[in-house]
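It is worth pausing here to work through a concrete case rather than discussing structure prediction in the abstract. The textbook approach is simple: state the sequence, then state the predicted structure, then interpret. We follow exactly that order.
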Amino acid sequence: MENGSCQLPISTMQSSTKDPKQQQLASLWLLVAISAFGPVVLNGVLPANTAIMQELQTSYGLVQLVLTVFMVASMIAQVLLGSLSDVLGRKPVMIFSLLVFTVGSIVCAAASSIEVLLIGRFVQGFGAAVCTFLPRTIIRDVYPRDKSASVIGYMTTAMMAGPLLGPAIGGWVTDSSSWRFMYVGLSVVGLLLSVLCFFFQRETLNSQTEGTVRPGLTESCKRLFASRLFMALVLLTCGSVGIYYAFIGGSPYVLMQLYGLSASAYGIWFAVVAIGYLTGNFLAGRYSSQIGVNRMIVVGSIPGVLGFVLFWLLSSWQHPLALFLPMQLIALWNGITLPNLMSAVMSVMPDIAGAASGLAGTLMTGIGIVFTLILSFITAQTVLPLLLVISFSAGMALLGFLMWLSIVREPAYSTQVPGLDDDNELD
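Step two, the predicted structure:
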């Protein structure tokens, strides 16, 4: 650490000295903090569901909408803000969105009814959307495809303190005092991050294209949807992330309502999932730039297959490990492949990388919304509905994988991806 900046791996630092543009990258730790904040806000509030249901005198299905409403807002915001960041720049969009999040958190903390709480969560979700897609877009602005996948992997490894500690802290605050203090804390952090961005975040949007006419939201989406490669990557990504969304949407009911876990215990067990994701991110950071994006996607799918099989093999065992152990393998799969998938998504059309990242995030969130809505209103006395949704999502991932594999084996593939390193691709 020097002058407040995070020291990247040696190979990355050497690369940055060769390319003056990479000096535009803000302190990596600021991007790590912003990235970590997203999963904290998403799943850190889940252990409070039962307490909210009791205090606001509402049903569990309505309380579960704190996740769904948040994701709806994030879905809308990602595609809008992603395209806007290609026009106005990354920094102003980041600061504005974090301030919007802060306002939403204050509304949640003061909510006197479930309706007001859901409004606050919508505003929260709109602002927090930048935590999901903009840090990785900034990384892609600065680094080429394989290197950006590696840096995203390292960045996500460091930021895993968020989902690792978020549910545990949320459960502890809820059990020891009130769920309202959780939202007060989130508002303070949101305001702090916006101030840090104002002083330390540098603009990374390609300065060579300033003054040129950039495609708007509609044109960007048309170009991306017309790309077979983009659609295959997004389908694979949505399927893999969809399993995670299904898990956070359905596991609180199964584990706390059916298996009797407390909010604190659920938060602690969730660390098992975070550890799997952290390990996968570290492997992505360590090996993506060496063996290439495509091979990492293939190798990373192995623990995903094992995790899916284990979900069904352990389905009759009413113990937290029956869900958290296979989910750890799924998280390992996501940790390895997601940095590479997102780097590949943003590399399909680098001139609209912000729109590509935002659109992919919107589609992933949309899948999550559908899954959580389904699981919010199915209160069966069994784990079967959760496993069926997980299986559907796994089928999506398999279809996307097969489509992607057929495209990357085409002779014309190397001409579709700018800056492709042929030595690192599939034979």
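Step three, interpretation. Residues 37 and 351 are 27 Å apart (CA to CA). The longest helix spans residues 228-258.
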